[in-house]
Specification:
This protein has 83 residues and is of the alpha+beta class. It contains two helices and five strands, in the order ααβββββ. The chain has a three-stranded antiparallel β-sheet, with no helix packed on it. Strands 1-2 form a two-stranded antiparallel sheet. The protein is globular, with a radius of gyration of 15 Å.
Length: 83
């Protein structure tokens, strides 16, 4: 599977899209089961691609020391509320 098949956007594509929108719109991410949430400040983390994971585990996981095939990615983590 090529990178073009795995990733839906790059930082450059996201920046260009966001620049075309009204600058005062809020930005949200999908919630745990439904609805939408705020997200933490974007950050760069080292991840690994695990396409065989179940859908609820996510196709990408945080890499651990010694993992092979890891790469840096910008991640938008949703705020987790403990209510």
């Amino acid at each position: 599977m090529s990178e073009k098949d795995v990733f839906h956007s790059t930082v450059g594509q996201l920046v260009e899209f966001l620049k075309s929108l009204p600058q005062d719109l809020p930005v949200l991410t999908s919630g745990y089961e439904s609805g939408f949430e705020n997200f933490y400040q974007p950050g760069i983390i080292k991840v690994k691609h695990e396409p065989e994971n179940m859908y609820y585990e996510g196709e990408f996981q945080v890499a651990e020391d010694g993992d092979v095939g890891t790469f840096d990615a910008v991640v938008l983590r949703r705020v987790v509320r403990n209510e």
